Amino acid sequence: MTLTTVLVLAVGTYAIRIGGVLLRERYSVPDRVRRMFALSAIALLAALYATNGLVDGEGFAGWARALGVGAGALLAVARLPFVVVVIGAALTTAGLRVLAIA
Hints:
It comes from Allokutzneria multivorans. By secondary structure, the chain is mainly alpha-helical. Helices cover 76% and strands 4% of the residues.
């Protein structure tokens, strides 16, 4: 079952990529749709934050983790290097956990 799923997703990904190359000259994306693509990326990141930053298993992951992910997001918005973003988020989470803010 897993191998079948991986193969189907691989074929689908390849088809989408090759379709973009083959249809590039035939189809133009309207400006309104391009703006929606940009907004959809923001919505996707917000959804990832909500699921990975706030939930652990079936319940709330705790304030330390949520605030650590938030700190990382702020550092990323400030356009700091990726290493600084990851270390800043980890230090924020660890510091809050040391202070017993789970």
